[in-house]
Design goal:
alpha/beta, SDR_fam, 7 strands
């Protein structure tokens, strides 16, 4: 079954991690996915990673959809304007789903230090990368949905509440994306367009696997360094959560909500890539987090 066949999605920040997982699982559901980000073959971003949007687009197509790589730096207004024009030229302005997953802040947070000992430049740059880019994407792409009176915007965040996340700049970025979803939902509701925030649990991304020195084949070995990693989830899990939301005809009723992969897995019939249904919420409650 391909519940998203005929649908058009843009995934902002689809080079790796959650963005790649989301793009590929949208492809699995049959969608046409504009795979956007900064890292392309022969011109990688400053993140120090080798993954590219072309690789992601190929995975989208291999999974059953159509992946279209488009280099977009969401901090550059002309890039986002060009994407807007491309969607009009190639899809007649159709856009059913926008996923704002641009991040780029991992190297900018100094954990274990008070905010005044963090580099101010890095903290502000994190906001530019993780909030301003989302604003740019939504400003130019939401009108395509408004014009057709349908669509969904998903803000990818970390956490499902407003609690402090251990670093002021990181907290500000992640909580701001939640409020972006809620504020956009209020403005978009009269136009029948939904906006939600969505958080994964402990994400087993490419970077996290590298951090622990393991691969997807032996990832459980990392539990010896961090037992919590045994409760981690692959990027496919949040990808299937996004696909389930995008296929739900009643998603407008959820507009403004803060959602989680584990919460949605209780409601929709999807699993992680290995058939598991990790539930970070229950685990965190048991551990007293």
């Amino acid at each position: 079954m391909k519940p998203l066949e005929g649908k058009v999605a843009v995934v902002a920040g689809a080079t790796r991690g959650a963005g790649r997982g989301i793009a590929v699982m949208l492809g699995e559901a049959g969608a046409t996915v504009y795979v956007t980000g900064r890292s392309v073959r022969g011109q990688l971003s400053d993140m120090g990673r080798t993954e590219t949007i072309e690789e992601t687009a190929e995975l989208v197509t291999a999974s059953g959809g159509l992946g279209i790589p488009v280099r977009v730096d969401y901090s550059v207004e002309s890039d986002v304007q060009a994407l807007h024009s491309l969607l009009i030229d190639e899809r007649g302005g159709q856009l059913d789903l926008l996923v704002n997953d641009v991040w780029g802040g991992d190297s900018l947070a100094a954990w274990g230090k008070p905010f005044w000992e963090n580099a101010l430049h890095d903290g502000i740059l994190m906001q530019k990368r993780a909030i301003h880019t989302h604003l740019m994407a939504s400003h130019y792409l939401a009108p395509l949905m408004v014009a057709r009176k349908q669509g969904l915007i998903i803000e990818i965040t970390d956490g499902s509440d407003y609690a402090y996340r251990g670093n002021l700049y990181y907290s500000l970025a992640k909580i701001s994306t939640i409020h972006l979803a809620q504020a956009m939902a209020a403005d978009l509701r009269p136009h029948h367009v939904a906006a939600v925030a969505l958080s994964p649990g402990f994400l087993r991304s490419e970077a996290m696997l590298d951090h622990f020195g393991v691969t997807e084949a032996n990832w459980r070995d990392a539990g010896q360094k961090d037992v919590h990693f045994l409760q981690s989830e692959t990027p496919a899990y949040i990808g299937r959560a996004v696909a389930a939301l995008a296929a739900d005809p009643n998603v407008l009723a959820r507009s403004g909500s803060i959602l989680t992969t584990w919460g949605l897995s209780d409601e929709y019939p999807f699993t992680d890539a290995d058939g598991r249904r990790p539930h970070w919420g229950k685990y965190a409650a048991e551990q007293g987090f």
